[in-house]
Design brief:
The radius of gyration is 20 Å and the shape is globular. Helix 10 links the parallel strand 7 and strand 8. The chain has a seven-stranded mixed beta sheet. By secondary structure, the protein is an alpha/beta fold. The chain is built from ten helices and ten strands. The model has no long low-confidence stretch (mean pLDDT 93).
Length: 273
């Protein structure tokens, strides 16, 4: 018999996830929570979701599994393509300043965004020994998503918006048992560093960035969480740098530290640009 998640149990997971990741679960997410955690409840032979909640508060390894299951998000290559047109122009304008261009995919999920950024920079700045220096950092709270990102192996439909020249230049097409998949070229994968970062906590020393992508994640945050997260990231943004959010998101009412350059694209004052 299937075990159902009741409202009091949902409230337990809602409080837990909000405390860890700042993500607000609405009652409409009840079926999602039940569906994503059902296999773990069954795996341990538990009688209720309350028992599973008790388990994850006692076991850090299983807590990470639960967080991974509840925080995965849809992404794909070249999502919201205008942002990458902007990035190309931004990178081209800075190719001669001598300082490494650093771009942060702050909620990188399974890695498609970070690799898209790397493709644009490799195409714009080059990736040979004489090319201007650049690097891409991808971070996420989910260890499961980060593991997938490091592999760089994806179903081919996730590359549906990837320009064909990029597909041929930066990806390998799967054959045999890997038919229907693509693998990001190892040389490009080496240009992207992935690590676990919880944006809802004080940040580790990640250094300064010229561009920060924080797209399609704030929709899960309450206003006070948005403010805290954005201000943490702005502290890592160099003067003149760009801060990009999802097309359905805005920083209006969230911060006064950035100026709007275009819808969903913001700049930090200074830097001579």
């Amino acid at each position: 018999m299937d075990i159902t998640l009741d409202d009091t149990e949902l409230a337990l997971f809602k409080k837990l996830l909000y405390g860890i990741a700042g993500i607000h679960l609405t009652p409409a997410k009840k079926a999602l929570v039940q569906g994503r955690l059902a296999k773990r409840v069954k795996h341990y032979g538990l009688a209720s979701y309350r028992d599973y909640h008790r388990l994850i508060t006692e076991r850090e390894d299983e807590l990470q599994v639960a967080v991974d299951l509840l925080t995965t998000n849809e992404t794909y290559f070249f999502r919201e393509a205008k942002h990458f047109e902007w990035l190309r122009a931004f990178a081209a304008a800075r190719r001669r300043n001598g300082r490494p261009l650093r771009v942060w995919s702050a909620a990188s999920s399974s890695g498609e965004e970070a690799y898209t950024i790397a493709m644009v920079l490799a195409d714009t700045l080059g990736d040979g020994p004489m090319a201007p220096p650049w690097e891409v950092v991808g971070t996420d709270i989910s260890t499961r998503m980060l593991e997938q990102a490091r592999k760089g192996l994806y179903d081919q439909h996730r590359a549906r918006d990837l320009p064909r020249p990029y597909l041929h230049k930066y990806c390998l097409k799967g054959v045999g048992g890997q038919a229907g998949k693509i693998l990001v070229d190892p040389a490009l994968r080496r240009r992207v560093q992935f690590s676990q970062v919880n944006l809802n906590e004080p940040l580790p020393d990640v250094g300064g960035f010229d561009v920060i992508f924080l797209r399609n994640v704030m929709i899960y945050f309450q206003p006070e969480t948005k403010q805290r997260v954005v201000e943490r990231l702005i502290h890592c943004l160099r003067p003149g740098g760009g801060f990009l959010v999802g097309h359905s998101e805005t920083l209006s009412g969230i911060t006064r530290s950035l100026t709007a350059e275009a819808p969903s694209i913001y700049r930090k004052p200074g830097g001579g640009s």
